[in-house]
């Protein structure tokens, strides 16, 4: 950890010099670009600012960190069965759900969402038929400021659990509006793949549950909260609201990614995880045939 702390602090600009036209740059020119990119399979990182945004309190995490990198590694835990207390997978198709909810008439077996449900398209994905929970980061804006929340769709009780680090009356109203896209679209696509659990098909009623008693953010740390909420659930550990330290989580996530990327560089390791691509045509045809018979 000391090596990482020394590395992350090397070349930092003074606070007054950090702001640039399109955001923040935290490093001197000679330290900003990494000598060799860190390869994380789902993203290649050549800018040291990427790590600092994870490390520093109050920095908003963009999609390359949240559902790009962090949720990819959470999926690997489930895919390889490492220390997971539940059967789960993750997905990152919020924009598609919003788009489809506006035009439900075009939902069909050729849709990309079918690929995700069947375990295709993203690296280390698992078919929803083989898991009990599907987790995904969801993005919304509060007063024109981006905010991440965590959605957990339980396939056992057909409930959508929402984990939110800003629980106010106004924010709850916004979140309720945002999750309507999932509530409307999920039953349609589950029916398209003939999904059932314990022999009971989804009847189209998905209840939304706002999870209470969660740690609440004071800065723009929502992405770290989302990752930690997901990690706690996956590991089967309760979230200790009183002892939750977002600074420690930030440092830990930044260190783990740095350590993993450095290990790959030092050992010439290349991940053999590959995207499974889209579902084959014969899979889609079989779904159509099943729909026609039902």
UniProtKB/TrEMBL annotation:
One of its GO terms (biological process) is proteolysis. Pfam families: Peptidase_C48. The keyword Hydrolase applies. Signal peptide: none annotated. GO terms for molecular function: cysteine-type peptidase activity. InterPro entries: Papain-like_cys_pep_sf, Peptidase_C48_C. Keywords: Hydrolase, Protease. Residues 70-233 form the Ubiquitin-like protease family profile domain. This is Ubiquitin-like protease family profile domain-containing protein. The lineage of its organism: Eukaryota, Viridiplantae, Streptophyta, Embryophyta, Tracheophyta.
